[in-house]
Amino acid sequence: MKRLTEEQRLQVRNFLADQGLTFGPLLEEMLDHVSSDLEERVGQGLSLDDAWNELKNNIPENHFLSIQIETMETINKRFSISRILSMLALALMFGGIIFKILHLAGANELLILSFAAMAGSFLSATVSGIYLNREKQGALRLVSILAGTLLLMAGFTFKLMHWPGANFLVTLGVGVSLVSFLFNTFYVYGNSSTHVNLLSYLHEKHTPGIERFLLILLVPVAILRILTLPLPQNQFLGSVILVTIIYAAGVQFFVISWRLLERESALRNILNLSALVLSITCFTLVFLGEVLGFEIRVVLITVFSVVTAWLIYKFDPPKNYLLSGVLVLIAFVFTVNMLTRLNLVPAANNDLIFNVVVLLLLAAGLFMSPKHGATRAFLILSLAGYLLEFSGTLI
Question: b vs e for 293-313, b when ≥16 Cβ sit within 10 Å of the residue's Cβ?
Fold first, then answer.
C-alpha cells in the first residue's frame, strides 16, 4: 500500500485543525486514522484527489469537533475524583504547615494525610486513564513513573516521622524513577508522534491544571519565605512543600519535553538526547539526600540548572530578552552557589536585597512565559529550589 508523503500528511493535519481539533494527542490519532483511510482508498485504485474528495464528502458536519468534545468530557469525568483528592491534599498540606507554625499537635499527621491524598489522586488518575485508553501504548511506562513517585513519597513520609527504612525507600524510589524516566526518554526519542503515547495523551490537557496546582502551593510559601529571610535558616517551615513542588515541576518539565520530542523530529538528535538524559540523571539523584556526599549533590544541582536552562533554549525558546536573561540568571546563581559551597570562591555576606531581587526576577519570568509550558515548569522548579536553598535544607 502506498504511504502518504510528509507533505500530504501535513495537508491532512491542517484539514483536521480547520475542523476544530485542538487537543494534540486526539489530532495525532485522527491524523493516523484519516491517513490510513486515504491510503486504503488509493490502494483500491482511486487517485489521491478522488480519494480525498470522497472521504471529505462522507464526513458529517462538525464530526471531529463532536469527537473532541466527547473526549474532553470523558477526561473531565475521569479526573473528577483526582481533582477532589488534589484539593484535599492542598488543604491538608497547608493545615500541617499552619499547625507547625503555631506549634500545635498533629502537624506531621496532617502532612502525612496530605501525601496520602496526593497519592490517591495520582492513582485514581492513572488507573482510570489506563482503563479508558487501553488501545494506547505506554501503560507500563506510565505505571513505572507512578511507582517511583509513590516510593519517594513513602520514603519522605518515613523521614518526616523518623521511622526506620526511610533511606531504603528513598533510594528505591530514586532508582525506579531514574530508570523509568530514562526508558521513557529513549522510547520517545525513537518513536514519532504517530505512536500515541498514553502519558502524553493524559498529560496534555491537564498541563495547565498541574501548573495551577504548583503555583497554588508555591505562592504562599514564597511569600512566607520572603517575610522570614532575615530569620535563621532553620526556622523556615515550608521545606516539605518546596520539595514537593520541585519534584512535581521536574516531572512536568520532562513530560512536556517528551511531548515536544514526539512531535518535532528536528529536536531528535544526539546532543539534545544527551542533554535531556544528563538533566534527568542529575535531577533524580539529588533526591537521594544525605545518601550522596555533600559535594556531589552541590555539583548535581548546578549541572542540572545549567543543562536544563540550555534545553529550554532548544525545546521552548524564549520570546524576549528579559526571559532569556532570567534563564541565564538561574544558571549563574546556582553555579556561584556551587563554587561558594565548595569553597572555590570566597563566600559573600547573605544580601537580603539581592535575594529578594532574584526571587522577584524568577517570579517575573513566570508572568512572561504564559505559552511556554516547559519554561514555566523550569521556572517554578528554580524558584522553589532558590527558596529551599535559603531555608538551609537543599543540600
Answer: eeeebbbbbbbbbbbbbbbbe
